[in-house]
């Protein structure tokens, strides 16, 4: 959870969503393991007088202590579940006793709710780590605070499911009958996420398209059947972006602020971007890329179109780090075309902002993309995205079509087939419009820049999801 501790997009969501929900008038509390990284972060966090024992099978019933904080700048409570043997470590996720660690956390969340009293309407859990919360709520006796609580499970990345050998079952404290193919057992192992999918009142993922994709064998990571079975309870809600940080009108990282009413600042940023990468200040499209250099992001497709792209009158700038092979690839590209290719093989928020602000186009040929932030940043900065037709990219980008009915709303270029041919065709179309269709280009920029990418919009959809969770028939599995 930003700002306390972050390993990926989930951290941004938990940092932003509670605040956006509170702004809509809802009462929210957040629970988080008290990781070592938080203990050393200098936050104002105080021990509370809440302590309880949590059943953990072979580990007995360790005592956890709750610490009390507030999301900085707000009065939204964050309760930290303290258990030093489990969370005071050099790392977040990479441990062999993760089953025990997150069973402890999941049980502690429910016991915390009971200690706080009142009545909880919704318990919203994220990814496999807390996917047992819906299971426990529906299979064990609950006190007043959680008896009527409904659960929502959000899947941020289906690739991580929390799979453990059968030996870990004894830590769960769950009845043995739940170790079954339509509950928590999956291909001879325990699968926490599957349990959450089976028991949550509502399930969501981070884009509408990804919610459909994960019901297919291509994207379902072996859980497509389970997800398809629960499709009536499955929704997709796109993550918002942090509009305090990613807004060209107030962005403090970029040399010139701009808006869709006046794009002259963007042109100046383009020149600074060209200078930064030691490229000549020429009047040609500057194509950008920012991202992790990994298989998921379709870097091989980019490599496949590179020489053809270099035959066009363009410049290309990229920022990213990841697999060594891809680093070499971009270094070689720079050596071969020093006046056309700028390469930064590092992690830098500042350069990321400069590319989004200064480039004309932005490439995202991802194989799959549960949500994706960069296409949203690009749209907000008038940088036309060229994206593969998948996940959150599909949800955000409306393809340009010269005569098509969508001409008035399009904001980028979408290619359908995951192939170098289709990708290059998308790039070519963009280059053509950039040179010969100034009005159309401006309209696309305006469409992207004037759209609402804020968390408020996403939070409103989560509220609807919570309302649905409260309405759907309750599946009680206590015996
Ligand atoms: P993913 O979460 O799969 O990496 P997203 O597009 O959802 O992809 O989010 C990636 C985030 O990380 C964006 O904010 C992007 O700007 C940032 N990012 C990725 N690589 C870099 C880098 N090398 N330098 C700076 N920011 C980066």
Count of β-strands: 17
The CATH class of the largest domain: Alpha Beta
Shape: elongated
Mean pLDDT reading:
96
The CATH H-level superfamily of the largest domain is Glycogen Phosphorylase B
Kindly report the CATH topology of the largest domain.
Rossmann fold
In the sheet with the most strands, the strands line up as 14-13-12-15-16-17
Strand percent estimate: 15-25%
Counted up, domains total 2
**Which CATH architecture of the largest domain would you pick?**
3-Layer(aba) Sandwich
- Helix-strand makeup class: alpha/beta
Mind describing the biggest β-sheet? 6 strands, parallel
Number of helices: 19
The N- to C-terminal Cα distance equals 36 Å
Point out poorly predicted stretches.
none
Spatial extent as radius of gyration: 24 Å
Give the helix proportion (percent range).
Answer: 25-40%
The distinct bound ligands, ions and cofactors come out as: adenosine-5'-diphosphate
């Amino acid at each position: 959870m930003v700002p306390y501790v972050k390993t990926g997009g989930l951290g941004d969501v938990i940092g932003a969503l509670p605040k956006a929900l509170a702004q809509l008038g809802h009462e929210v509390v957040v629970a988080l393991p008290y990781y070592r990284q938080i203990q050393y972060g200098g936050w104002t966090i105080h021990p509370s007088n809440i302590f309880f024992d949590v059943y953990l099978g072979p580990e007995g019933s360790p005592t956890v202590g709750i610490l009390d904080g507030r999301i900085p700048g707000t009065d939204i409570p964050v309760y930290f579940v303290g258990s030093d043997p489990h969370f005071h470590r050099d790392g977040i996720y990479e441990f062999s006793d993760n089953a025990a660690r997150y069973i402890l956390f999941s049980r502690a969340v429910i016991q915390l709710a009971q200690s706080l009293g009142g009545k909880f309407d919704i318990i919203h859990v994220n990814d496999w780590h807390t996917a047992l919360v819906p299971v426990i709520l529906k299979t064990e006796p609950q006190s007043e605070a959680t008896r009527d609580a409904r659960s929502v499970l959000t899947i941020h990345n289906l690739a991580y499911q929390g799979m453990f050998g059968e030996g870990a079952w004894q830590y769960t404290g769950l009845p043995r009958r739940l170790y079954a193919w339509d509950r928590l057992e999956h291909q001879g192992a325990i699968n926490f996420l599957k349990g959450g999918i089976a028991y949550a009142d509502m399930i969501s993922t981070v884009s509408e398209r990804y919610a459909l994709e994960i019901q297919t064998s291509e994207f379902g990571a072996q859980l497509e059947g389970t997800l398809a079975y629960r499709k009536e309870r499955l929704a997709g809600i796109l993550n918002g972006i942090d509009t305090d940080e990613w807004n060209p009108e107030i962005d403090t990282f970029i040399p010139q602020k701009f808006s869709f009413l006046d794009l002259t600042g963007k042109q100046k940023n383009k020149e600074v971007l060209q200078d930064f990468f030691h490229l000549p200040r020429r009047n040609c499209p500057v194509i950008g890329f920012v991202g992790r250099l990994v298989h998921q992001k379709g870097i091989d497709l980019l490599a496949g179109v590179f020489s053809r792209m270099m035959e066009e009158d363009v410049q290309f700038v990229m920022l990213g780090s990841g697999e060594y092979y891809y680093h070499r690839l971009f270094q070689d590209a720079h050596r071969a075309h020093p006046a056309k290719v700028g390469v930064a093989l590092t992690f830098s928020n500042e350069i990321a902002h400069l590319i989004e602000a200064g480039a004309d186009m932005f490439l995202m040929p991802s194989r799959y993309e549960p949500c994706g932030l960069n296409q949203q940043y690009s749209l907000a900065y008038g940088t036309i995205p060229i994206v593969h037709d998948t996940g959150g990219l599909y949800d955000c980008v409306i393809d340009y079509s010269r005569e098509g009915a969508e001409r008035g709303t399009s904001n980028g270029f979408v290619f359908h087939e995951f192939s170098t041919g289709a990708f290059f065709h998308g790039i070519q179309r963009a280059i053509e419009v950039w040179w010969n269709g100034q009005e159309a280009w401006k309209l696309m920029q305006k469409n992207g820049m004037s759209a609402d990418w804020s968390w408020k919009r996403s939070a409103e959809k989560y509220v609807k999801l919570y309302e649905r969770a409260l309405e759907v028939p309750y599946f009680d599995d206590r015996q």
